Structures are given as structure tokens and as C-alpha cells.
Amino acid sequence: MRSLINILDLSVEEIDRMLDVADDIIANREKYSEVCHGKKLATLFFEPSTRTRLSFEAAMYELGGNVLGFSAAASSSASKGESVADTTRMACCYADIIAMRHPKEGAPLVASKVTSVPVINAGDGGHNHPTQTLTDLLTIRRKKGRLNNFTIGFCGDLKFGRTVHSLITALARYEGIKIVLISPDELKLPSYIKKDVIKNNGIEYVQTTDLEAVLPELDVLYMTRVQQERFFSEEEYIRLRDSYILTRKKLDKAKEDLIILHPLPRVNEISTDVDDDPRACYFEQALCGKFVRMALIMELLGIHLD
Amino acid sequence: MNIDSIKEGLVIDHITAGNAMRIYNLLGFDKLECSIAIIKNVNSKKMGKKDIIKIDSNIDINLEALGYIDPGITVDVIRDSKLVEKRHVDLPETLHGVLRCKNPRCITSVEQELSQEFMLTDRENRVYRCVYCEAKAN
Ligand SMILES: [Zn+2]
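^ thats the input. predicted complex w/ zinc ion below
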């Protein structure tokens, strides 16, 4: 049975096909309203993540399916010491597909090895979050009309930002991608990703600390949260934080057709005066998340419409 | 035990000199009941010096672990005093139960009964990563 644990579990062709289905869902909502009739999705969320869980649940309901599950370890048997494997074995008696969120890295892989139903990794600690990456890809493709030949800037916390690592990994398989890494020295992209993913795939990249200087070159700007707890001192944080805040004023120098993405939730790294700029796409991105999850659920359940 | 003539057993040969005790420990040979000979610093035309381990029983041996420690090793299988098979080990693609993941955020750190599995992700630099969390083995 197919599962989605890491974005690289999907080939480029499979991703493209799934994004086609997502586009078709957006265009023809009615056509898909009953395709998962009688099917159940189990959301096993060992740590709370309201945003991701609601997106999965809405996706399944819009396909005409049902949802069951739990939303924090405290309300599940895991708090009584049950293993991930046993909780999964129990859940697959009742569900046709599982979406799992877990604070420990690799937990969804453990689940996928013991069950007969597909498992979707809905985030495992700081490790993988493939449905966020599918969301990002769908948003870029809908806005730009392509997933090749563009310059994308990643700004903020590139060291711990798993959504950044995962999107870079996914984009490395497309042609003509140029990557601009924008972060303070303390939060630079880990060297193994630079080597294994960017250099090994021969991708052109630039590393800088200055957002404003590179902004005019970008077709896509992927903003991330700069978390205070990552810094050594408060002064350091305040000094660096402001240089990675996107404001309406800084956008004056950006391209007209730039798109600005953010995995959300944001704190203050995008000032609210950017929200009604037509280049701000992060709320639409959240909506794309639901549609791409619908396409993914269909794919993993083997449901194909012509 | 006559170390030159094994009737039934294994000869682990072409061990890089100095690695025999590491293999002995990592493969848990201290727990075996049968006779074992460790021969160190044997003259070898090919290697200069090498170590050899002879085991007086046809035990199941973890070839992955051997390949991980020392990819040039050969294992001779002896039956009825005859060499019946010569196995070459290589740097294995996967390692089962050889290394432990040290990443505190890894699921294996809280669920101790999970099997420890690593995969080779960079042959040139011999990099193994945990299959669960992708942390580098060290
Ligand atoms: Zn691990």
C-alpha cells in the first residue's frame, strides 16, 4: 500500500498528476463531492496542530468521506504508553487511510510499516511535512503556471525550517530553478542540504544576509518565521529580526509578478500592510493546502476520475 | 582447538590489522559457546598485515555488520573440513541492528523495541543515516 512519508516518495510525474487533479477539483467542486463516500480518514495527531488537522478533515469531508481520530496525545491511548505501531494497528481496523502527526521523527514511517492502509505524514517533529510541500508546489504552479525556470528566495530561519528543506528538495528535481538563501549567519541552511541537495543537483544558488538587495531578482519569495528562542541573546534577536521583516515599502523594488508565500502561522515577519498587496499569496496558499490534500487522499486510495 | 583445521565453521579472513577485536565485540562473539581463535597481525602478501578470526561452528553471521566495519573481509564457510563457500562482504546498503540512533528527537529514542535500521546515503564518504529520522550515524 502506498504511503506518503517523505516528499521524495513521489516521483515528479506523480506530483504533476496530483497537482492536475487539485486544479480540476478547484474548477469542478461538484464532480468530487461524493468520490470518497463510505471511506473514513483517521487523523492521529499525537501533538496538536489545529491548522493541519482541519485542512485534512475539511479535505475528506469535501470528498464525501468521514473522519475519526484524536488531536493530542493526552486524549489517546499513547498517554497510557501504547506504541505508535499498536495505535496504528487499532486505527486501521476502522479507517481506510491515516493522517499522522507526531512530535518524534520517523513515527509515521513506523506506522506505515505495520498497517495495510495508506499513511500520510502530517508532520513528524522537525523532520518532514510533505503535504506542506505539495501545498507550496500547487500554489507556485497556479500562480506562475510552471514549476521550472524561476528564481525563488527563502528568507528567515533556514536552519530549522523544515518546510524550507523539503521545498528545496522537491524543487531540485525541476529544471532551471535558481535559489537565493536569505538569512542571518546564525540561521543559515545546514551544510548537508547545501551539499546533498543543491550542489549535487547542480542548482545555481546565492547566499546572502540582505533581503532588500536581492528582492528585485525574485519570482517567488518564501518567508519563514524567525523564532526568538533560536537566538543567543535578546539584543541579537531584535537586531536581526527587523532585517527579515517584509514590509510594503521594501516591496517597492520587487517584481510586479512576484509571489509571496509563507507556511503560516506568521508572527511579525510579514507586516500586515503587505496583506492586500496582490503579490501576497499566503492566504490562498492555505486554501491550496486543502485541495492538494483532497488530490492526495484520492491518489492514495486509488480513486481516479477521467 | 586446532586453529588450522576446522571441520565445521567459519574463517573470517582479510580483516584489516587491528579490527579483529572490534568485530569480536560488535558481533557479540563473547556470547558464543564454541571455540574461537583470534589471530592478529598475520603476514599477508596482499595486505602486509591482517587479522583472522576462526569460529568452530557454523553460526549465522551478520554480514552487514562485517561489511560496515571492514568491507574487504571474506568469510570462508567450512563443512566436513572443506571450503564450501567463500563470501565477499561489501559496504552494505542497509544495516539492521548494528548501530543505534543517537538523535533524541527520533522515534527510536522513545520506542526502544523498534528495530534499528540505517541506510547508506553516501558511498564515497561511507555515510549511513537512520531510516526513521535521517540523522547521520556516528
Ligand atoms: Zn533516528
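The radius of gyration of chain A is 20 Å.
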